[in-house]
Structures are given as structure tokens and as C-alpha cells.
Amino acid sequence: MSPSTSRGRDPATAAGATAPVLTIDGPSGSGKGTVSRMVAHALGWHYLDSGALYRAVGLAAAWEQIDLSDAEAVAACASRTVIRFDGDGEGEPKVWVNGKDATHQLRMETAGAAASAIAAHPPVRSALTDLQRSFRTDPGLVADGRDMGTVIFPEAPFKVFLTASAEERAHRRHKQLKEKGVSVNFDSLLHEISARDERDASRAVAPLKPASDALFLDSTGRSIGEVVQHVLALVPESMRRP
Which of 45, 71, 85, 87 is deepest in the core (most CB within 10 A)? Predict the structure, then answer.
């Protein structure tokens, strides 16, 4: 349940600019994507996968053979990259990057590593800030990422920080990739997740951390359904779809 095009409207004039927002931040593998999609569907709200935007820019930069350490070049790539989401709100949406179906590529660990690398560049984050805010439309938005509640929507009335142990997240990701037919070594996956946690938490710009007013949820050992119910309890019944 997300806008069909990436070229964001002016957030100052977009209809629904004051629509309610529920942010769900957390590290890779915490379950925030699945939880966010299910919560958005239950509420009848739109859904923003902010991580997919960074992965898409990283992929587009790779296609153009841009050095990911070149902040200005990657930011320029972000400004011209067209990203489109297709989905009915229940399952994982398809993601189109510059007219190509990049859904499968964006879920690879290499795309995640690229996203983490470019997310450390202030010019790239600036290029994507207005785009992310443009997804805020009526009747409401569920936004998942790493700085949704601290930087992109600091005024959001509902905030969650979802986490889980690194081992639990590595097991979940390993299972997910195996189900998709992707071969990956568990120890390598655990190392990459731990390394990414360190990069995301220690970067100078918009580090991964809970918003001071966020509900902290540890999903280790909890079912997705249980976590979804905890999150839904934050939103009054009057704000949900009939």
C-alpha cells in the first residue's frame, strides 16, 4: 500500500501532509518490514519501505559503475533514479528501478551492504529526505527504516523501535534466503549483520537508535502476530479503516 511512483511530490503541498504516521525503526532482520506491511494492511494505511529506496539507489549506482564512496556522484544518481512500488499491501511489493524489475536483486545481501554504505553520505540522505516525506498521504502512513522516527518523521504520533538478537536475525535471514533459493553461509551472514549494526549505529549522520518517545520491542522469541498486535495497540480504533 504505497504510492506508485518514486518522484516525490512537494511535501509542503502534498495532500495529506498532516496524515498520521506510525514509524517502525530497527536493525536489519528485526522483522520490521513484515510487521510494517501487516500493520499497514490492518490499518488501511500506506506503507513506505525506506530501506528499499536506499537499496534501489545503491543498485542504480552499481549499474552506472559509480564508486559508492563518492558521495556527490551517488547523490546525483539518487536524484535521477526513478523508483516505483507495485503491491496490494498484503505481500512484499515489487520494486522497479529505472524501469527494471529489481525486486529480487534488492533483497540480496550485496544490496543491503550497498545501502548501508551510501546511507552514511549526508548528500545522499538529503537527496532522499523529501522523497520519503512525500509518501505521507491520507489516511495514514506506516514507515519502516532506521531513522523514520528520529529524522524523517520526528513528529510522528506513533513510534516503534523493533529489534532482536543478532543470532536470531541471522537465522531469520538465512531461512528467508533459503526459501528464495539463495545459497548463503550462516556465519558469513551473522558477521555481515553484526558489521552492519556497527556501521549503522556509529555513523555520524542519522545513526540507528530508538527515538526517545518510541515503544521499544524485542522480537526475539516472539511470533510476528504477537509483535503486530503490540504495534496495532498504539493506534486508536477511531484511526483505523472501517
Answer: 45
